[in-house]
UniProtKB/TrEMBL annotation:
Residues 1-21 form the signal peptide. One of its GO terms (cellular component) is plasma membrane. It comes from the Eukaryota. This is PXDN.
Length: 332
């Protein structure tokens, strides 16, 4: 009887180990009703070890981990807190955080991450804190941060980001604080920030923002949201919100009106200008080239290939038509 009881206990222990996994030998673990709390802080790890499947808290800070080769929540569906800062990680695979329904906090700062790909942080419905500062991020792709309805604090400062593309930050309705200071951001595309209805602070200090017409979409977005506190400055030191509306209205395509068949186009720097056709020129296509082009006694003609004014004298195209000989004209 005792042998039978011992055998059943052995099976229970074995099966529990198979379900929950084991604590890595170099780490320390504790368990309670929530699951396993795993502490691998500063254990000289070069990779992410196998972890108990019921892990809800994992501390992997201050190691030498170079890559993320696990889908954390596929292997640990109870995971709520992931601390993996101060390592040597250079990229985040797009599927890293798939099915992370309970994840609330992610520490990824002080690594060597170079870019954030589309859909890297998407549909993390309980995520509240995300730390990505002090990396080497030079590019954040569109849709990198998407549908994070409970995210409140996002730290991406002290990186190398050059620009913010359209649809970079979307549907984060509870985002309260966003820190992008200390990057190399010179250009912010239209709709880079979408549906951030709770945003209170947008830190953009120490970024060389280009305040030509390309700043217009971001400027108008800020003006419409006066409650947002921001430190955004132009490269010349002026605060973005201090730019005069009259000076920027020429950048607004809605205020661009062209005459005589001209069309409004937006230049590379964001300036809205008129593209004139035929003889028409000037800022609004209201000036005829023929008015200022002296053809003498000939007629003005607009060359269709390059749009320049020429003169027509007796079916001949020349630069100027001299006065005809009056004697020859009268004799006829």
């Amino acid at each position: 009887m005792n042998a039978e009881i011992t055998f059943h206990l052995f099976l229970v222990v074995i099966s529990t180990g198979l379900v929950k996994g084991t604590c890595p030998s170099t780490c320390s673990c504790s368990s309670d009703s929530s699951g396993s709390n795993v502490n691998c802080y500063s254990k000289n790890l070069g990779y992410i070890p196998d972890l108990p499947s019921d892990t809800f808290y994992i501390d992997l800070r201050y190691n030498s981990i170079t890559e993320i080769d696990v889908q954390f929540c596929k292997e640990m569906p109870k995971l709520k807190t992931l601390l993996i800062s101060n390592n040597q990680i250079s990229e985040i695979p797009v599927n890293t955080f798939v099915d992370c329904e309970l994840l609330q906090t992610i520490y990824l700062h002080n690594n060597k991450i170079s870019a954030i790909e589309p859909f890297t942080f998407m549909n993390l419905h309980n995520l509240r804190y995300l730390y990505l500062y002090n990396n080497e991020i030079s590019a954040i792709e569109s849709f990198a941060f998407m549908n994070l309805p409970n995210l409140q604090y996002l730290y991406v400062y002290n990186n190398k980001i050059r620009s913010l593309e359209s649809n970079t930050f979307i549907n984060m309705t509870n985002l309260y604080y966003l820190n992008l200071s200390g990057n190399n951001i010179s250009h912010i595309e239209e709709n880079a920030f979408g549906n951030l209805t709770s945003l209170s602070t947008l830190q953009l200090a120490s970024n060389p923002l280009n305040c030509d017409c390309s700043i217009y979409p971001f400027w108008s977005w800020l003006i419409e949201r006066a409650a947002i506190g921001t430190s955004a400055k132009c490269s010349d030191g002026k605060f973005v919100i201090s730019l005069r509306s009259a000076a920027l209205e020429q950048c607004n395509p809605d205020t661009c009106h062209c005459f005589n068949g001209g069309k409004c186009v937006t230049m590379a720097n964001g300036l809205a200008v008129c593209d004139c056709i035929g003889e028409w020129t000037g800022e609004l296509c209201q000036e005829s080239q023929c008015i200022s082009h002296d053809c003498g006694f000939g007629n003005c003609y607009i060359e269709p290939m390059n749009g320049t004014a020429q003169c027509v004298c007796d079916d001949t195209y020349i630069n100027y038509c001299p006065e005809r000989d009056l004697d020859m004209t009268s004799s006829n």
